[in-house]
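To whoever is on call:

I kicked off a structure prediction for a single chain this morning and the downstream step that reads the tokens threw a length-mismatch warning. I double-checked the sequence; it's 241 residues and nothing unusual in it as far as I can see. Pasting both halves so you can look.
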Amino acid sequence: MSITGVSDRIVIETSVDVDVMYYWMAMRALKRAKRVRKTIDSVESEWRLAEAREEAVLRRYGGDEAAAYDELEADAIHMVDGLHPELESKYGHYAECISLIYVFGATALEAHINSRAMELSRSWFDSFDKLPLDGKWLFFPKVKGLKGFEPGEETYGRFLKLIAMRNRLVHFKVNTTELWKAGRVPSFVMAKDFSVDSAEKALGAARSMICMLAGQMSEKNPDWVDTRPSSYFGFRHVSVK
């Protein structure tokens, strides 16, 4: 998108750097996810302590829950009515953050490679534009005569995992149900690929792809991959009257 401003002598264009915007939306989601994860760990620690107290009480009563009821009641109420709803709330926020990292991370990569491809001829761009995201990142460098990316490389492999997770989230299919259990949330939210560590690696792959392409084009790494810019709007002089 562009808006043209005309002064008496200079024509200036401004544009929205959507790749930068989406990248930093993902980065801010990562920061929030780390913060929420710490609160989840705290609540889960409290849950484990309550469970340990329950188990100790039951051992004293030989496993007789009816006989131990008076001593179990306070912790049971606290766990089911207090800790479990808090866990669900925290995990809900956590799921939002992790999802945003994958979705916006992939979207930033698509916006970035699309902006790069604007310099292609119309016929090459039409071919490029029909490709899926991974295909675009393979196609563009080759058309430009660059080294490009190899599917077997570690960075490209993590890039593919980012896309796969984005696709799972965007085209989510609920094909299993689980029994409700106090102190637990659906297993999908607790899966390894849905962790802060995995999401951070996926976003790191996005950064690496952008920087590797810049290097192949004899450019420096974009400043914005490490430092959030004060504005997402770019300016350049187009012509002087």
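Update from on-call: the warning came from a stale cache, not from the record. Cleared it. Sanity check on the structure: The chain has a mean pLDDT of 91.
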